[in-house]
Fold these 4 entries.
Entry 1:
Amino acid sequence: MKNKKLDSTPIRQEAKGRWLSILGTLCPDIEKQLSKPGKAGSCPVHGGKDGFRLFRDADSTGGGICNTCGAKPDGFALLMWMNGWDFPTTLEAVANTLGYQSAINRKPVQLRSVPVKQKVISKPTITDDWIKKMLKATWGNSFPWYSSSAGLLRHYLQQRGLDIKELHRRMPLRFHPSLECRDSDGQFLGKYPAMLALMYGPDGKASAIHRTFLNYKGQKAPVESPKMLTPHASDRPVTGGAIRLGIPGSSLGLSEGIETALAVIQVTRTMVWPTYSCTLLEKFIPPAGVNHLVVWSDRDTNKAGQNAAYALKARLELEGIQVTIMEPPGIDMDWLDVLNQFGPSVFPAIPESTPLLGLTG
């Protein structure tokens, strides 16, 4: 059976009068022109100071003009030119931004790298000041996970097996529509949508951003490591910290991955913080007031997850903190796998569980 294709007609109709919002989500580089349609600014493809402007009726049409490449009569043509996409990719991106669930029914598309200025593609010089500015800009150009602009992120979470109706509206996850993706050597791989979460150090200060890069199918992006932490400044360590999804009581859950934590929160209604990796899980330092940790361990073939959990338990129990380890019933599983394969009934009871008391903003 062939996958159902998107019908462009209703999407075009729905986009009319909403193009500034759509372009703001998919083309954050033209923020200046979006604020003043008709006024020229830097071209997102060629650079310069005044090589590109949106038409005055851009909210209705989505059109604009480049002094070098000429006019783009509507938002679809503009997105195809600006981001290097074909029409099916563009239609799917607009549909997802508008919240069309039918966008998931097409075959995955191969995204092409976004044509950007060389100064963006070149490897940046990493300094503490650069890191802090980058973190502020990345977070500031993103949207809350529940906003109308973050439909692709919600679809990703649903595809992972989570019930987004069970996730609190103020869960501190955000969506970035077009974020630079670089490999471990700093080489530019392209721009992709991304789920964002703040990584806090043991002192409670935000130190880095966890990014899950996506494609426009609502799946992990086709890069070697779609989940990565940004660099952190020298005075903002991540070791000992975690991604703080909410406010704990005297008891706190701990996991490696974000989706694993969300699965446990969904089923048990207790607060769980992801630590990003088994290495950071082993080195976690509980905040003041927490005297009981429930570690929702991964069960890896190489036992890395279990070993980290038991090393954490041995260290913290010497400090008087109780640690309970929950291992999945099968090999090479995490608790999201358990939810998807066996359902919530397999999750163990937690006699001393703490309900969701609040969420960080």
Entry 2:
Amino acid sequence: MAHNPVADAVIRRDRNIVLAGLAAIVVVAAIYTVNMAQSYGGMAPTMMHQHDHAPQASDGFWSLFVMWTVMQVAMMSPTAVPMILMLTKVERSRHPDRSPVGRTTIFFMGYVIVWTTFSAVLALGQVALQSSALPSPQVAGVSPWLAGGVLVAAGLFQFSRLKEVCLSHCRSPVTYFMLEWRTGRSGALLMGLKHGLYCVGCCWALMALLFVAGVMNLLWMAVITALVLIEKVLPNGALIGRIAGAGMVIWGIGLIVLG
């Protein structure tokens, strides 16, 4: 099939605009996250050696909520790039005389709304843990049972049916839009919200690892982001995710037994 050079140039321009906007958002969120981590004593150490100056419930729910929200934007926005670029391309194909940036932006807003809601849940969970007699996320190192239990649960979830269903939607942008296509701005928002729900359903257990790895542990943030991106993008991503899950289970059992 012959290519239309003009159409190809327009699609590339749309792609570059969207990528530039996403990059700017991720960079700003990442800078905020790094600065926040440094304000709490720098990059948190490993799971068994937490820093004493990590975020505390005494910081207040809203401070923790903002922290989690910005972290989620920095970590999860890159993993949504394939879906967002596919929407940009489809929008331009359907409406050659109209910029796709508007609907693409609304779609991304829907995606962020879901992760923002999940961030509120995480912040509430952190406050609850800090306020209870249970070991807090920042001192999980003194509780190998807690750390091991979260690792085992997250690892087992990698083999669950829910994980498989949600990941299949995230891995197939074309199929997702064929099944879920909606018109208009409200339609773009609904598609973004639904994709966000699939993404949270796929990744919530991995995010829970930050409670035992250190809420502001930059290394673990990068590892989790990389694993999510690998699962969504690489041909054998789902298999790699299961291998990682098996490793989490083994690691978690080791912490419980040796602890």
Entry 3:
Amino acid sequence: MRLIASFISASATLLVVAAGCGAGASPEEKWADSVCSSIGDWKSQVQQAKDDISTKLSSPGTGTLTAVNTDVRNAVDATNKLATDLKAIGPPDTEKGAQAKQQVDALATQLQSTASTAKQTVNSVPANSTLVETAQKLAPLAPALESLDTAASSALASVKESSAALKEGFDKADSCKQFR
């Protein structure tokens, strides 16, 4: 009987200790994790497209134009998906949550605008274009996509600095490690 009583007492103590520890992620941390996860996925996809384009243009051959157009479209699709994902993430239920959400939505709008311009640029390249003509038409896309990377980093920094709680959320969120 004493063994059972000791076991129950030890179990109850462990439950109390466990309940007091690691109460879970804060609303800011959960929100930051969602935002950083989406942006991180996007950055990987766009970087892969840029690397593929660079490789294909450095040693062009049959099918290079089609492959480059596919990579550009993949980057555009990834950018549109990020914009949609960011707009779908609700604001953190905190004092500065609405302001943080506005900043992320502004980034999403900028992403959509640049993706739309990029899509128009790709669509404006005639199917019978030479590699040189295609490269000239698509050349403005690289700086535009690069500027989105900078804009995403700036938006994250701005949101992070808008409140101590948001900063802590970004600092603790695992998916935000890549932006530190």
Entry 4:
Amino acid sequence: MFCPTKIWRRWHRKVNVNQRRFAIASALAATALPALVMARGHRIDEVAEFPLVVDDSLTNLKKTKEGVAFLQRFGAYPDVEKSRDSRKVRCGAGKARNRRFTQRRGPLIIYEQSNGLDRAFRNIPGVQTATVDNLNLLDLAPGGHLGRFVIWTKSAFEKLDKLFGTYEKPSELKKGFLLPGRMMTNADLARIINSDEVQSALRPAVSTPLILPKKRNAVVKKAVRVALNPYYATVQKREAEKRNLGDAAKAKVLAAKRAEQKARNLLRPRRKAFYRAAVKEGDVTF
């Protein structure tokens, strides 16, 4: 088998206890906002109120048809139909690895004590059940998306204050846990900024914008480099003088070479005439 799963893979991540509790508290708060629940894709148009809290007699249901009747009565069955219709075969090789189908999540029913509730809802597609004492973040916010459609029993909903406490009283069951307080009592930021109290304390707006000068490259611009290092002008002048002296010496040597070459060129016709005359008279033979 090529590249099998290694036993030393980090399957689990350690997360702080308080951090987990804050995440679950935030996910629970999101389940009470219809806008977030609808944004997640749940069908709650026929639900009468949010959060949906029902009587504890729900825990006595034992048959699937009773569970379906309950969901239809409270307007939660359209969400079940949406979950049922979303079932499809998974793409790729995962379909051969015990996860052949994918399906959207439906309602989550949270109870305190079950008297057969699990059996009544376990065969309804998309519906999940959970105890209020053992809430799972993956059930409250599947895929990391807040706003799960949650149906509460009365006893489970009343127990939340003991589990997570309130803004004034800490939790009775979680030691040292207090709900995080609000950073702002009024979240309407635009109204706060435009209020007379804030506007009267602000400085007047700047009419002319501040224009920052463009940065010039000291390596390319000689004037900028001289402004940074005045001695650079002296160095440049000294180097220019050296170059001028070198150019004069080169010109003098080049002129001497050209004069010598010119003299040689003048003697060349005379040499040719001399050798031609010698050959003609027979003094030179080849």
